[in-house]
Design goal:
The chain is mainly β. It is 0% helix and 53% strand. The strands form two sheets. Strands 2, 4, 5, 6, 9, 10 and 11 form a seven-stranded mixed beta sheet that branches. Strands 1-3-8-7 form a four-stranded antiparallel beta sheet, with no helix packed on it. A hairpin with a 5-residue loop joins strand 5 and strand 6. The chain is globular, with a radius of gyration of 13 Å.
Length: 118
């Protein structure tokens, strides 16, 4: 059974930093893409960043240059370092994973709240 557990959310002032972590369990994730999504109040969930099974990273334009995604295959973790945070980054952040050949993310964590105060 696949399980994703996020941690590291919290409250921070604009311009500050937070690091989110996602611990995956239930199988080997070496052939899985890992990603972060977020959902702000009243808005649809949106893509933030992803790291493919081969290591290629992609980012939403809104976070490029500020956020960095990384994964540790040995520990089955994926982190999201968030710098220069803005109030518009306030959202619930979700970790997700999918087998590398799929287009939709199959498994999701429960989410962690990030609140950025201006």
């Amino acid at each position: 059974q696949v399980r994703l557990v996020e941690s590291g959310g919290g409250f921070v002032q604009a311009g500050g930093s937070l690091r989110l972590s996602c611990a995956a369990s239930g199988r080997s994730f070496s052939n899985y893409d890992m990603a972060w999504f977020r959902q702000a109040p009243g808005k649809e969930r949106e893509f933030v960043a992803a790291v493919r099974s081969g290591g290629i990273t992609t980012y939403a334009d809104s976070v490029k240059g500020r956020f960095t995604i990384s994964r540790d295959g040995g520990k089955n973790t994926v982190d999201l370092q968030m710098n220069s945070l803005k109030s518009e980054d306030t959202a619930v952040y979700y970790c997700a994973t999918r087998f590398k050949t799929l287009t939709r993310y199959e498994y999701w964590g429960q989410g962690t709240q990030v609140t950025v105060s201006s």
